[in-house]
Amino acid sequence: DVASQGKPVEISFDAKGPGWWDQSELQKLILASNAITAIPDDVASLPALAVLDAHDNKLVSISPAIGQLQALHTLSLSHNELHQLPDEVCHLGNLKTLRVDHNQLQ
Question: Is 31:51 a contact under the CB 8 Å cutoff?
Fold first, then answer.
């Protein structure tokens, strides 16, 4: 368990050959409590994503590519280390729930 060792974790959809995310229209992704430090540009490869829950991590950055997730209606980023959100979050027309409490937003 990497998170329990106190080491930061980065997620990436970069792999050789097709990955599981290429095989389905993923609608819900729960990344909570994993010591993840960033949501990368690769998140744009999940266009059907409706729920992204990345609360209780060590997030310091969210890729502007998140603005491409037009199906996203719930974004949970609470309990992280974010200082700002990308402006592209404002372009998420279907977003109904945005949780960002317990961060360092300015």
Answer: no
Residue pair 20/40 in contact by the 8 Å Cβ criterion: no
Q: Distance (Å, rounded) from C-alpha 15 to C-alpha 72?
A: 24
Helix (H, G, I), strand (E, B) or coil at 1: coil
Answer yes or no: is pLDDT of 40 > 70: yes
Residues 1-4: contacts with CB within 8 Å, 24+ apart?
A: 2/34, 2/35, 3/33, 3/34, 3/35
Distance between CA atoms of residues 56 and 54, nearest Å? 7
Q: What is the model's pTM?
A: 0.81
| Contact criterion met (CB below 8 Å) for 58 and 37 | yes
Residues 100 and 13: their CA atoms lie apart, in Å, by 24
- Each residue's pLDDT tens digit, 53-103: 999 999 999 999 999 999 999 999 999 999 999 999 999 999 999 999 999
Rounded to whole angstroms, the Cα distance separating 47 from 45 reads 6
